[in-house]
């Protein structure tokens, strides 16, 4: 990974220097050394004007592959420079699922124009995938699947495969269907090779292979691949008709995108964010999140302000306040991360929510008691007042108890009201732990120390 980052940065520097010097031949030599996915990384690392200038020098034979690897924001900026016929030609060699991903991100009228520019065969292939939402198995599948009938012999299948111009990538098994294209099972290539030529397909196929319904969410598809150690899996409609297949490379993309989404959502950003998007666009995208954080900060400040007189009389409170809030925030974040992950994997839900909540509260109490003793000892020795140690210890227990409860309850509540816990959970949790921590510490101090 580190080598890839260094390589990308070296090419960013070299490309920018070559373009500034108008050394087009040198630019094309650099591009010839790169794989499509590396060119995609390079484009995402360049400012928009340089990106547009570089795009015209990319070999048209690999434009489609470069587009398939690019993020939505960058891809759309490149597609703006192309005519529909150019897009249709560039994507003609891509898998149907990759083309569908590209078209789904475009305005409907533009996508329709590109579809009309395709030949009839490609149009039908892509239309099948576009029938389903992008975040379902149907939207993820590739319609290029090799199918065979169960009543033919192994020898017939082998002769059929030899006549194919090419095998679809990641083909580890053939799909067995009947005359009406109803899915019956799979024929693994290993079983095909090892079988006797006169054996019937139905004798060597795997009839217990479970197909994935086209409406299955993509995260559930990823879980199925992980649980069953799959390389590919058939996709069927509600009538059991074979529609296509999902391969492991598609699932890896889903996992990567979900990871990116979680990281970016935690900061209130779009996972398809363009590093070099226009300044005003970027500023507008971040405004809402900043406004929410500002509101929560004022709420915490208001709580502190209620105890202004208390803080003036005992300066040590101002010194120790961040300790209480910070410990609660960290403890809560740990719980929040565990629960959000459990929700994403289906390990946490209504059936065990109560048990998870009670467990995290218990962990919060235990950690609260342990670290309360440590912080109390430090505070008492630092300021020479054992009462201050007792107050901060009590506040720590209260805040870590609250952190455990809130860290588990907030994502469960957000999921129930259909809000992404990864997006809103962090802000809500920080607000709760800050407000409770400050209120508990300063309230106890006002009652017993001042």
Give the SSE map.
Elements: H1 2-20, H2 24-32, H3 36-44, H4 48-55, H5 63-69, H6 72-79, H7 84-90, H8 96-104, H9 108-117, H10 120-130, H11 137-140, E1 147-149, H12 154-163, E2 173-177, E3 183-188, H13 189-194, H14 201-204, E4 212-213, H15 218-228, E5 232-236, E6 242-247, H16 248-265, H17 279-305, H18 308-313, H19 316-345, H20 353-383, H21 386-416, H22 421-448
Parallel strand pairs: 1-2, 4-5
Antiparallel strand pairs: 2-3, 5-6
**Number of spatially distinct domains:** 3
What order do the SSEs take from the amino end to the carboxyl end, as H and E?
HHHHHHHHHHHEHEEHHEHEEHHHHHHH
Structural class comes to: mainly alpha
In terms of DSSP E residues, the strand content is: 5-15%
Regions with little confidence, pLDDT below 50 for 5+ residues: none
Q: Which fold name corresponds to the CATH topology of the largest domain? A: Tetracycline Repressor, domain 2
The tally of helices reads 22
Instruction: Please describe the biggest sheet, giving its number of strands, its sense, and whether it closes into a barrel.
Output: 3 strands, mixed
Highest-level CATH class of the largest domain: Mainly Alpha
Q: What is the tally of beta strands?
A: 6
CA distance, first residue to last residue: 57 Å
- Radius of gyration, Cα only, in angstroms? 29 Å
Strand order of the largest sheet: 1-2-3
Q: Report the principal-axis shape.
A: globular
What's the name of the CATH homologous superfamily of the largest domain?
A: SLC41 divalent cation transporters, integral membrane domain
Proportion of helical residues: 55-70%
Q: Report the mean per-residue pLDDT as an integer.
A: 85
CATH architectural label of the largest domain: Orthogonal Bundle
């Amino acid at each position: 990974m580190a080598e890839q980052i260094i390589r990308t940065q070296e090419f960013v520097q070299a490309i920018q220097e070559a373009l500034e010097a108008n050394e087009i031949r040198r630019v094309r030599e650099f591009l010839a050394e790169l794989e499509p996915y590396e060119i995609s990384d390079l484009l995402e690392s360049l400012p928009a004007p340089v990106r547009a200038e570089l795009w015209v020098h990319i070999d048209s034979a690999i434009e489609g592959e470069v587009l398939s690897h690019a993020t939505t924001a960058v891809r759309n900026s490149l597609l703006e420079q192309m005519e529909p016929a150019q897009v249709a030609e560039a994507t003609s060699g891509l898998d149907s699922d990759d083309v569908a991903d590209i078209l789904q991100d475009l305005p409907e009228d533009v996508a329709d124009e590109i579809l009309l520019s395709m030949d009839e065969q490609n149009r039908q292939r892509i239309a099948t995938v576009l029938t389903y939402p992008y975040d379902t198995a149907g939207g993820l599948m590739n319609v290029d699947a090799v199918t065979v009938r169960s009543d033919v012999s192994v020898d017939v299948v082998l002769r059929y495969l030899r006549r194919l111009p090419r095998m679809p990538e990641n083909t580890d098994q053939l799909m067995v269907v009947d005359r009406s294209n109803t899915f019956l099972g799979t024929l693994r290539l290993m079983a095909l090779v090892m079988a006797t030529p006169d054996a019937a397909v139905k004798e060597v196929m795997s009839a217990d292979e479970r197909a994935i319904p086209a409406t299955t969410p993509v995260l559930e598809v990823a879980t199925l691949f992980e649980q069953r150690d799959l390389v590919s899996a058939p996709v069927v409609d509600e009538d059991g008709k074979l529609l296509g297949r999902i391969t492991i490379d598609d699932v890896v993309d889903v996992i990567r995108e979900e990871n990116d989404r979680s990281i970016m959502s935690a900061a209130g950003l779009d996972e398809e964010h363009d590093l070099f998007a226009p300044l005003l666009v970027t500023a507008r995208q971040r405004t809402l999140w900043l406004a929410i954080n500002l509101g929560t900060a004022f709420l915490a400040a208001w709580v502190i302000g209620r105890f202004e007189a208390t803080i003036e009389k005992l300066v040590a409170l101002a010194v120790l306040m961040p300790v209480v809030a910070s410990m609660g925030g960290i403890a809560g974040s740990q719980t929040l991360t565990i629960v959000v992950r459990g929700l994403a994997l289906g390990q946490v839900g209504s059936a065990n929510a109560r048990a998870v909540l009670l467990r995290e509260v218990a962990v919060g109490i235990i950690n609260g008691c342990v670290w309360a003793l440590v912080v109390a000892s430090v505070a008492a020795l630092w300021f020479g007042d054992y009462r201050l140690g007792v107050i901060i210890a009590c506040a720590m227990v209260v805040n870590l108890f609250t952190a455990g409860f809130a860290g588990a309850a907030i994502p469960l509540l957000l999921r129930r009201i259909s809000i992404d816990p990864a997006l809103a959970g962090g802000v809500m949790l920080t607000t709760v732990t800050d407000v409770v921590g400050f209120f508990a510490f300063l309230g106890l101090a006002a009652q017993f120390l001042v």
